[in-house]
Amino acid sequence: MKRAIVVVLTLLLCSGCVSTPAGPTVSVMPGPEKSFEQFQTDDLVCRQWAVQQAGPPQSALTQGTATGAAIGTVIGAGLGALIGSAVGRPGVGAGIGAGGGLLGGTAVGAGVGQSAGVAVQRRYDRAYEQCMYAKGNDTPRDPLPPPPAPMR
Fold it and tell me: Nearest Cα to 80, choosing from 64, 65, 110, 102?
């Protein structure tokens, strides 16, 4: 049981190490008639605004891992106890099931947490791109669709 507690605490500590996005993953170029210094100022302001709009990633990541570990442990212990009772050792089955459920639940929870981190990066990029566009900088756009084929 001590080993399980150490594993949970280690995973929770590691998942708490996630930070806000380091920066945008979209390319933005200075707008026409903009100096590089103006572009740098816009970039700094928009990065700060994007962090505020994206929200804190730590809570979603940590909650996903912790919730997955807790649910996995409870379900694993229950299933282990059922299987263990079939062979006359429900306590051992519950312990083994709890350990397996803890590992499986933590893995699933970490995946959920990682998905939350990707969503935070997407929100950050969207807010950054909107801000830079509003300040008159060039942002990437989808290419225009090709013109329709002439009628014959």
Answer: 102
pTM for this one? Answer: 0.54
Count of domains in the chain?
Answer: 1
Question: Residue 6 carries which side chain, given as an amino acid letter?
Answer: V
- Contact between 137 and 29 under an 8 Å Cβ cutoff? The reply is yes
Mean pLDDT score of the chain: 74
Residue 126 is part of which domain span?
34-134
pLDDT tens digits along 39-61: 999 999 999 999 998 876 655 55
pLDDT over 90 at 129, yes or no: yes
Provide mean pLDDT across the span 133-145. Answer: 80
Handedness of CA 111, 112, 118, 121 (dihedral sign): negative
* Residue 96 domain-assigned (yes or no): yes
Contact of 124 with 24, CB cutoff 8 Å: yes
Q: What is the DSSP letter of 118?
A: H
Q: Evaluate whether 125 touches 53 at the Cβ level (below 8 Å).
A: no
The residue written with tokens 């997407």 in the block is: 122
For residue 56, tell me if it sits in a domain.
yes
11 within a domain of the structure (yes/no): no
